[in-house]
Here is the input.
Amino acid sequence: MTEPRPDRTRTLNRGGPDEPMLRPSRQLFVVLQASRPREGASRHSLDDLDEVVIGRGNTYRWQRTVERGVRRLRLDIPDDTMSSVHVRLTVRVVTVLAADAGSKNGTLVNGKRIEGAELAHGDLLEAGSTLFHYVAALPTPADAPHDLASTELDGAPGLRTLLPELATKFADLCKVAPSPVPILLLGETGTGKELIARAVHELSRRPGAFVAINCGAIAPALLQSELFGHKKGAFSGAVSDRIGVLEASSGGTLFLDEIGEIPEHAQIALLRALQEREVTPLGASHPIALDLRIVAATHRDLAVLREDFIARLRGFTIELPPLARRVADLGVVIVTLLDRLAPGRPIRFDVDAARALVTHRWPRNIRELERTIETAIALANDQPIATQHLQFEALPAAAGKPDPRRAELLALLEEHGGNVSAVAAATGKKRQQIQKWLRKYGIDPDRFR
Here is the structure.
């Protein structure tokens, strides 16, 4: 999720009076235990602490104490490569200092062994074979728990997160799921939109089927037939009656993926069906009543779609962050994937492979992570997953070259304090275009506020 630059002087408020007040909070995440990835992950607030002691324990647990005025958090990790007292964090007013406590295997920050170091925002801390992620100013509701384990998270796969702001959005989504309100999912390709759509269907308890259609994978000339169905002889090639996905999902949930690819004539026809709650198959003379629940998704700018069409789909909107902005959640996502790909199997990583997973940029998001984990499990063949088993997708050739547009956006966001409207005015572009570029480059304007 969003990892803004540190600002300890103010309170953040992201929305209207009904939204929770957010404040920047220093947080330490246990991201991944390489030898026991299913042990889960956890989040720990460093606010109101003076010291964190991390070491080996028989069970995964933590305890907050106050002794002689020192507010301390003790983190016990069942990691055989960790010393009983491995590393100490000293929490000061602004800084957090990490010091190796004479451990046998050493302490690393961003892959380099240290005796002592000041942690910077986004740093990766290693103790034994356990990886930690430090976030200097995470937007956090005031009532969020100080400590939270991934094993305490409820809900369907895809709706589990240790990130407080995203958890609030998922909680709102769970409230909306049992209602007929349409849901619009935004975000890059591969961020788990279909997984969330399936979770919404399960939470809705609607008796009908979950039906998914990728609007971008169907030829425009055939899209209306796929949506509405057709009667035999309705057009050349219609050799039999066919039920469309609208009728097939009646009573259940219809997931319209990549709605940004729907041509305008199909948008008009679909809008009419949604408004009238009925569909007439091509070649039919009478409409069929529908009981519709729509979940739609796109990675494209909504400006490419008709306003009345989007208005019909935009009941509850949630934007999913790219995986590169959910480093702290990587262990949570990996556990979900392991439960599906290798249920019951004792999957393990060596520490180099775990570090590679946490530091990879994941340009194809959760979809790429799933393929990578699935391939690694097959290659490792019940041995610990090592770096040679990780088949990462190659980054585009231009990924390493500086992009002048991205540099300009960063400079303007810095100049205007993250105000997207002001950036749009400065560039002479529409606000929607600036938002499109921000999504493309993975830039969060809140970092600059």
Notes: Residues 182-314 form a domain with the Rossmann fold fold (CATH 3.40.50.300). The two ends are 16 Å apart (CA to CA). The first helix runs from residue 164 to 176. The chain has three domains: 22-166+323-389, 182-314, 402-448.
